[in-house]
Amino acid sequence: MEEKEYKDTYHTLNQRRCVFEKTINSRRCTCKQSHRFHLADREGIACKSAAGNTLCVEFLNSMRSKARFALHLTSANGPLPHTKEIKVQTGGLLGLQGLIYPHCAADTNIENAIGLIDAAIEKYASLEKLPYDIIVQAIVKFEGRKKRPRKSDP
């Protein structure tokens, strides 16, 4: 399947893409509103909730914006390069999880992204009132998988 055909089919099948798709596909996060599907030899994540998706988009955009300086970016209008996007998604959710559930601060995985965001709104009244300075520290601190060494040719 050619890449353009794949993307066209993907967007037809997945009309409400999960914004935390990268971190969910890396097996670092789950979400009760996510729906995993397979297309060709790849996995995609759809969101079952329009309201939840809107909330997640707002939270992710806030994290990108607040972490922009720390990630040495001049702008953060939309998805970031893959490694930085994983850092924002996974590191940000881990930071939020540590704030909401201090007993989970050392965890390396996130259980139920939308539940975590809902709990944060319940605790802080809105996404704007979250202590993003602490979340950004978690983003900066987060390290994804290490690159595997290349095998030398025989």
Summarize the structure.
With 154 residues, the chain is mainly α. It is 49% helix and 8% strand.
Question: Quick check: average pLDDT?
Answer: 89
β-strand amount: 5-15%
Into how many domains do the coordinates divide?
1
Structural class: mainly alpha
Q: What is the straight-line distance between the termini?
A: 32 Å
Number of strands: 2
> Gyration radius, to the nearest Å?
16 Å
Give the neighbour order of strands across the main sheet: 1-2
Helix content bin: 40-55%
Number of helices: 6
Characterize the largest beta sheet: strand count, sense, and whether it forms a barrel: 2 strands, antiparallel
| Secondary-structure element pattern, one letter each | HHEEHHHH
Q: Which residues form runs of ≥5 with pLDDT under 50?
A: none
Question: How would you describe this protein?
Answer:
The protein is mostly helical and 154 residues long. The chain has one domain (15-141). The chain is built from 6 helices and 2 strands. It has helices at 3-13, 21-25, 50-67, 82-100, 113-124, 132-141, and strands at residues 34-39, 42-47. A two-stranded antiparallel sheet has the order 1-2. The radius of gyration is 16 Å and the shape is globular. The model has no long low-confidence stretch (mean pLDDT 89).
